[in-house]
Amino acid sequence: METERNFVARARACRSHQDIQDVYAQWADTYDSDLVNGAHDYVAPVIAAETAYQLLSHNSGAVLDAGCGTGLVGAALAKRGATAIDGLDISPHMLRIAETSGAYHNVFLGDLTKEIAKPSQSYELVTCVGTFTHGHVGPVPALRQFSRLLKDGGHIVATVLEELWLPGGFQEEVGKLAAEGLMDVISIELHPYLKGQDRAHVLILRKKRKRVSVSTL
Ligand SMILES: C[S@@+](CC[C@H](N)C(=O)[O-])C[C@H]1O[C@@H](n2cnc3c(N)ncnc32)[C@H](O)[C@@H]1O
Q1: Is residue 182 part of a domain?
Q2: Per-residue pLDDT tens for 23-57?
Q3: From the CA of 59, how far away is ligand 1's center (Å)?
């Protein structure tokens, strides 16, 4: 139990990409058993996946699971029927486990603090669970990148640890995306995260459809 707590504390204390690589390289093999079956009751992936799946237009709609880790969200989506899920993560050790889960069509290394190397309008859904937390990824540029990657009308479903919503700049960036006419805010609700320990905002945003202006000559 001590080790499990240590990994959560160590992950949240990361100060650099090297720290992230080191922690997750050591944690990858026991991450699922520690968080889901161990001292923690990490309910966020299933809560987010249930919400996200309902937003898919059909099972083969393209999904990006950003910060996929070992693939808990992908597995929950695939269990419901989703078949076209890509997983992105900065940790090759976590990605290796996501790949062997069989839930993902494709997994690739990526850094959510930079531009994501995928064409615009590639996905109808972007999920990001457990990655907007202490020591990990902030809202800029990640939320704007997700918006770019979405087809018009596509959705972002993301968790943001409760205590980071305001001080981490998430509320501000979501407000900017809405004010600029890029995304509509569908809902922002608090849900259990590590059940009994902390909560996260589950954020649902929808990319605005571009207005087509018809000119009469
Ligand atoms: C707590 S885990 C969450 C994994 C998975 N989504 C889940 O809910 O189990 C956070 C993940 O974020 C990844 N991560 C941290 N910083 C990142 C970055 N800059 N770009 C991409 N992934 C990152 C870590 O490697 C780790 O797999």
Answers
A1: yes
A2: 999 999 999 999 987 677 899 999 999 999 999 99
A3: 24
**69 CB near ligand 1 (under 6 Å):** yes
How many domains does the chain divide into? 1
Strand spans (E) along 97-138: 106-109, 123-132
CA of 161 to the centre of ligand 1 (A): 13
19 lines ligand 1 (CB under 6 A): no
Is residue 1 over pLDDT 50? no
The whole domain housing 185 covers 42-207
Whether residue 19 lies inside any domain: the answer is: no
Record the tokens describing residue 147, joined without a space. Answer: 């918006």
Check pocket membership of 129 for ligand 1, CB cut-off 6 A: yes
Q: Would residue 36 count as lying in a domain?
A: no
- Beta-carbon count within 10 A of 192 CB: 15
Give dist(CA 44, CA 60) in Å, integer.
Answer: 23
Our answer on whether the CB atom of 20 is closer than 6 Å to any ligand 1 atom is: yes
CATH of the domain at 144: 3.40.50.150
